[in-house]
Design a protein that fits this description.
23% helix, membrane, 20 strands, 46% strand, Immunoglobulin-like, 6 helices, alpha+beta, elongated, single chain, seven-stranded antiparallel sheet, eleven-stranded mixed sheet
Length: 350
């Protein structure tokens, strides 16, 4: 062959041109640029479209923030309210009428949440809870104060307020349970606004049930210092003494003038007793008591040991001249018994 081959570059993969001479012809190959790496392509893309990526980033952050504020935070706030609990330290039912009652209360709010929100004042319906079941209707509506929930606990003071009785039957059932059971459960239910720092105001549901000690059937009731006046005119008190009533609860209950019927199995009704201005306070209570009894029926009911077993049932609760039906029905539901030593009473009456 008479031609010569002149290579000025090695191959197209390295981007070199190749020149071939032979048989009077000259062939040139166009050089091929090296392929760019992914990183280089990405750099050029971001350099060209940086504004689009910035907009996308800001929009994503905004969407996440809005979801956190308007979706996650309300759920977190509601969960915190749901997990809170209340312990009553003072519960007062004062100045009752047939249709109203004055209530005040102090409580400890337990909050496991690390947040310290503030709840606006709100109206809460008070329900009786029996064996975990809420009553069909509330008995009272209470105006709850502004609450600043601290971790792990804070004090909530509800000042005295006159409340209309929403459901007489429910309040009566509550009074019966308070008088006859060891514990009672009630629940406060309502809606309010929750504030947490600079976050938007959140509407939360408040539903908190609390179990607390009640009067336990007046267990420990006793009568002391009894003195019989056999010369008292008919229809006038002829027996006086002291009524001892323990109150294991935190409740103060004003019941007015309370009248109790006295009876025996042998003779039926043998008289009645009255405690004037009876207000039960936490701890031990001692009241002056006056009674009108039929001495003949009492002595006829004695056993061989001179003991008379009296049954005591409340019949009347009058405050400022008004009968209180919810207390009267509660008193009638609780039967007390008392073994009365007639000989000791007569000896103390000398």
């Amino acid at each position: 062959m008479s031609g010569t081959l002149d290579k000025s570059a090695s191959n197209e993969g390295n981007g070199y041109s190749e020149k071939i001479e032979g048989q009077g012809q000259q062939i040139e190959q166009t050089p091929i640029a090296p392929r760019s790496s992914f990183l280089a392509i990405a750099k050029r893309h971001f350099k060209r479209f940086w504004w689009a990526h910035l907009i996308f980033f800001c929009a994503s952050v905004l969407i996440i923030a809005l979801c956190l504020v308007y979706v996650a935070m309300p759920k977190i706030a509601q969960r915190g309210v749901n997990r809170s609990s209340t312990t009553f330290t003072d519960l007062n039912f004062l100045d009752p009428t047939a249709n109203t009652i004055v209530l005040s209360q102090d409580a400890i709010l337990h909050s496991p949440s690390m947040y310290t929100p503030t709840l606006d004042p709100f109206s809460a319906a008070l329900y009786l809870v029996t064996n975990g079941t809420y009553a069909a209707t509330p008995m009272l509506s209470i105006m709850m104060p502004k609450i600043h929930a601290l971790h792990p606990k804070s004090i909530v003071h509800t000042p005295p307020q006159t409340l209309n009785i929403s459901d007489m039957d429910q309040l009566t059932d509550y009074c019966i349970q308070v008088l006859t059971q060891e514990n009672v459960t009630t629940a406060l239910v309502g809606k309010t606004k929750l504030h947490e720092g600079k976050l938007p105001v959140i509407t939360v549901k408040y539903n908190s049930s609390t179990t607390y000690k009640s009067l336990n059937g007046l267990a420990g009731f006793n009568v002391t210092d009894l003195k019989l006046n056999l010369s008292a005119p008919a229809g006038q008190p002829n027996l006086v003494g002291k009524a001892f009533i323990p109150n294991p609860s935190v409740m103060t209950i004003a019941m007015g003038n309370v009248t109790l019927n006295l009876s025996t199995d042998q003779a039926g009704i043998v008289g009645n007793s009255t405690i004037h201005e009876m207000t039960l306070v936490p701890g031990n209570n001692t009241f002056s008591m006056t009674s009108i009894i039929d001495a003949g029926k009492v002595t006829s009911s004695m056993n061989k040991s001179g003991i008379v077993t009296l049954k005591i049932i409340g019949t009347s609760s009058v405050y400022n001249g008004q009968h209180l039906p919810y207390y009267e029905k509660a008193l009638a539901s609780n039967v007390l018994t008392l073994d009365l030593n007639v000989a000791a009473v007569l000896a103390n009456s000398q």
